[in-house]
Amino acid sequence: MMINYIESNPSGNILFASHNPDGLITLDWIFTSSVTTYHSLKDKIYRYFKMITEPQFTSQRELYINSCSKLYKKNIVAMESSFSNYTNEINEYNQKLIEVMRDREILLMRLDPLRSSADSKNRWADLEYDKLCASPHVKDVIITGNIIQIITDTISINYKGESFNIGEFKIELYTDGSGDGVKVFNLTKPRNGRAHPHVLQSTGYCCLGNIKNGMLKLLAGYEYVVLAQMMITFLQSYNPDNTYEKISTWR
């Protein structure tokens, strides 16, 4: 405890003030017969105590204000950073929008001729369907979504003077390019999990060799009639050096 103020009256009685480290004020006094003298001394002590403690109050006030000010400044910096980021994003979106609008104009330029020739394309597709149905070894044509299913009659392979009846097939043309573009399944005579010496029955995967690229080009160009004829020719062929199953299995 520290004594901050002390005073005596003419009668010799003493009144003093002290405060502890927590800032609490304590008044101690020795009995005096004069109440007026006591209150006079007490007022002086309070005024003095306020005078010596005011700098502490001022310091705490400044600390409080500085603490709030730092928080405000921190929030301002964060908001300014966010604002800058949003501005950059807006600029990026504007650039992307310009690119998309340009791409749209290019597509419109390409689309207009297609629209004008839509009727002629439909007439062409109508003729192509007739050609496909009339192709050799084609029994039926079934359209299921993006798949053109071609059902064949009996396919034979002539090898070393011998004719092998391989069976009837379902050829699937995937117009969107999925499923490796083409799958083939044997409907009547699969052997040992093989639809054909060069075709897996379970997945319909065909080992097309060097004709694969040509097949994909025909698929991309809507040349389904030519592609069907190519696949039928493939089913009528046999290469003993690259096979899943020997041709003799179909005797």
Rg calc: 50 Å
Q: How many discrete structural domains?
A: 2
Summed over residues and divided by their number, the pLDDT gives a mean of 80
Order of helices and strands: EEEHHEEEEEEHH
Distance between the termini: 118 Å
**Proportion of residues in extended strands:** 15-25%
- Sheet/helix structural class: alpha+beta
Low-confidence stretches at least 5 residues in length (pLDDT < 50)? 1-6, 29-33
User: Strands across the major sheet, in which order?
Assistant: 4-5-6-7
Report helical residue fraction: 40-55%
Give the count of helical stretches. Answer: 4
Report the strand count. Answer: 9
Q: Largest beta sheet, briefly?
A: 4 strands, antiparallel
User: What is the CATH top level name of the largest domain?
Assistant: Alpha Beta
CATH architecture of the largest domain: Roll
* Overall body shape: elongated
Provide keyphrases for this structure.
alpha+beta, 251 residues, 3-stranded antiparallel β-sheet, 4 helices, single chain, 4-stranded antiparallel β-sheet, Ubiquitin Conjugating Enzyme
How is this structure best described in words?
The protein is an alpha+beta fold and 251 residues long. The protein contains 4 helices and 9 strands. The strands form 3 sheets. It has a 4-stranded antiparallel sheet with strand order 4-5-6-7, covered by helices on one side. It has a 3-stranded antiparallel sheet with strand order 1-2-3, with helices on one face. The chain has a two-stranded antiparallel sheet with strand order 8-9. The radius of gyration is 50 Å and the shape is elongated. Mean pLDDT is 80; it is low at 1-6 and 29-33.
